[in-house]
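User: For a reading group we're discussing how well predicted structures match intuition. Take Histidine triad nucleotide-binding protein. Before you show the prediction, I'll give you the sequence so everyone sees exactly what went in.
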Amino acid sequence: MNPEKSIFSKIIDREIPSDIVYEDDKCIVINDINPKARVHLLVIPKKPLETLFELSPEDKDLMGHMMLLLPQLARAQGLDGFKTQINTGESGGQEVFHIHIHLLGK
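Assistant: Thanks. Here is the predicted 3D structure of Histidine triad nucleotide-binding protein, as structure tokens, for the group to look at:
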């Protein structure tokens, strides 16, 4: 794991300002600064996992929590459908090495 904090860890720690949509003890949700849709949220776990390759059985509750949060966030944004995306690894298009789920909707 990279010892340097990711931009998302800095957002979680309030070192960098961000447009926070939702937060609880497990994750934070922000508006993407470069949206690809009318609604483009990033669901970010507070646990600093770099990629899906790092997940272990102990992370199933965290990942389940984030997945169950997605439809709630979509409804709160007025969406009746949405798309999700998780990029994993450099060749998978991941730019920030801290797991995050993109929620996109029209």
